[in-house]
């Protein structure tokens, strides 16, 4: 009783070759996944460093703004001091000028 059933006959060699092909593909995929994992870790590390650099830059910017504000305040204070000094000198000279003027008028009127 040798009956043939309709269908496809697959030999052990074909099965072995197919398994080897799948095995090779899995090894390549494993290598690619390992590379992808490594790149992902590297990207995560770079993102952390980027965040740290951003924080440092923001702190530096804030310090620069504070320094600029302080500089403007000091300039304003210095200008105010100069103005005060000029007014004080003028206010101190007015009595002497008035006295000198009165003395000159009195001297000229007596002659």
Automatic annotation (TrEMBL):
Residue ranges of coiled coil: 19-81
Record keyword Transmembrane present: yes
Record's keyword terms, sorted: Coiled coil, Membrane, Transmembrane, Transmembrane helix
Transmembrane domains' residue ranges: 88-108
Protein name: Uncharacterized protein
């Amino acid at each position: 009783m040798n009956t043939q059933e309709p269908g496809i006959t697959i030999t052990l060699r074909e099965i072995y070759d197919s398994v080897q092909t799948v095995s090779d593909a899995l090894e390549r995929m494993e290598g690619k996944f390992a590379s992808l994992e490594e790149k992902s870790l590297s990207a995560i590390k770079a993102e952390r460093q980027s965040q740290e650099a951003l924080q440092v830059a923001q702190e530096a910017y804030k310090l620069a703004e504070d320094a600029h504000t302080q500089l403007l305040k000091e300039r304003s204070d210095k200008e105010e001091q100069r103005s005060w000094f000029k007014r004080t000198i003028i206010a101190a000279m007015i009595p002497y000028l008035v006295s000198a003027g009165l003395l000159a008028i009195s001297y000229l009127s007596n002659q």
